[in-house]
């Protein structure tokens, strides 16, 4: 399990780095994630979290047609963040009140709006 999580974290870091265009962006990105990697504080969504996120998004899609455009844009990532935090007993601290409150209508998790 630990090995698969490390590989997944590397894949996420690789995707993040692939989106950076210039050399200073790589250094800036590394300054952001490397301390967490060294401390082994990188958490990635498990298969169970992905499945639960799909169920949450399907429920929101059916229950609230007005939010369907948000489901297809950024709400997927927010659901994954919320449900991953829930799976380890962590709180989500965010300014994005709207999307995380939507997810919380379907699944409870600790949420702190700043």
Structure description:
- By secondary structure, this protein is mostly helical.
- The chain folds into two domains: 2-38, no CATH class; 47-113, no CATH class.
- It is built from six helices and two strands; from the N terminus they run αααααβαβ.
- It has helices at residues 2-18, 23-38, 47-63, 68-72, 75-88, 97-106; strands at 91-94, 110-113.
- The protein has a two-stranded parallel ribbon.
- Helix 6 (97-106) links the parallel strand 1 and strand 2.
- Helix 5 (75-88) crosses helix 6.
- The longest helix has 17 residues, at 2-18.
- The protein is globular, with a radius of gyration of 15 Å.
- Mean pLDDT is 84; it is low at 1-7.
SSE layout and pairing:
Elements: H1 2-18, H2 23-38, H3 47-63, H4 68-72, H5 75-88, E1 91-94, H6 97-106, E2 110-113
Parallel strand pairs: 1-2
Helix pairs in contact: 1-2, 3-5, 5-6
How many discrete domains? 2
Distance between the termini: 34 Å
Helicity, as a percent range: 55-70%
Instruction: Flag low-confidence runs.
Output: 1-7
Strand coverage percent = 5-15%
What radius of gyration results from the CA coordinates?
15 Å
Q: Count every beta strand, where a strand is a DSSP E run of 2 or more residues.
A: 2
Major sheet description:
2 strands, parallel
Spatial arrangement of strands, main beta sheet = 1-2
Q: Which class of secondary structure composition applies to the elements?
A: mainly alpha
- Outline type: globular
The number of helical elements comes to 6
| SSE series | HHHHHEHE
* Average pLDDT metric: 84
Condensed summary:
With 114 residues, the protein is mainly alpha-helical.
């Amino acid at each position: 399990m630990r090995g698969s999580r490390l590989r997944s974290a590397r894949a996420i870091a690789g995707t993040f780095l692939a989106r950076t265009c210039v050399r200073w962006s790589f250094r800036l990105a590394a300054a952001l994630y490397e301390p967490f990697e060294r401390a082994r504080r990188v958490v990635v969504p498990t298969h169970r979290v992905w499945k639960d996120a799909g169920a949450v998004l399907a429920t929101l899609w059916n229950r609230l047609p007005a939010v369907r455009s948000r489901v297809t844009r950024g709400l997927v990532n927010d659901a994954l963040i919320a449900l991953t935090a829930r799976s380890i007993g962590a709180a989500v601290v965010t300014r994005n009140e709207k999307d995380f409150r939507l997810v919380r209508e379907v699944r409870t998790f600790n949420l702190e709006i700043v």
